[in-house]
Amino acid sequence: MTPRALFLPLALLALAACSGPGYHRIDEALNDECPRSGKRISADALTIYRGRIVGFCKPECRDDFAAHVGERPEDRAFFDRLIAATYVEAYSEAHVEPATAR
Ligand SMILES: [Zn+2]
């Protein structure tokens, strides 16, 4: 293997390490409830979607979503709505008129 051929496997390994258990915190998750069951999300069922920590009720839900993101439009729509809501919040917070402006 050339050094170049090693780069991709190592990069993937680093990515896997970052998304492994214990790295994500449930209190930083975008959602509180599983998009599938409506149950509370579980600390052992977190993953990353569009750069956000998202949660599911159990690892089986999470693993299925993580392995088939492109084929799970309902789950993505659920998270996309929440992500869009955080953008709206950030925008309105950034554009509040200062009280001294009047
Ligand atoms: Zn679930």
What keywords describe this structure?
102 residues; mainly alpha; 8% strand; binds zinc ion; 2 strands; two-stranded antiparallel ribbon
Topology:
Elements: H1 3-18, E1 46-49, E2 52-55, H2 59-67, H3 73-94
Antiparallel strand pairs: 1-2
The structure holds zinc ion (ZN).
The site of zinc ion has 7 residues, from loops.
Q: What is the assembly state of the chains in this entry?
A: single chain
Helix content: 40-55%
Unreliable runs: none
Given helix and strand content, the structural type is: mainly alpha
Structure notes:
The protein is mostly helical and 102 residues long. It has one domain (21-94). Helices cover 46% and strands 8% of the residues. The chain is built from three helices and two strands; from the N terminus they run αββαα. It has helices at residues 3-18, 59-67, 73-94; strands spanning 46-49, 52-55. A two-stranded antiparallel sheet has the order 1-2. The longest helix is centred in the last third of the chain and has 22 residues, at 73-94. It is extended, with a radius of gyration of 18 Å. Bound molecules: zinc ion. Zinc ion binds next to loops.
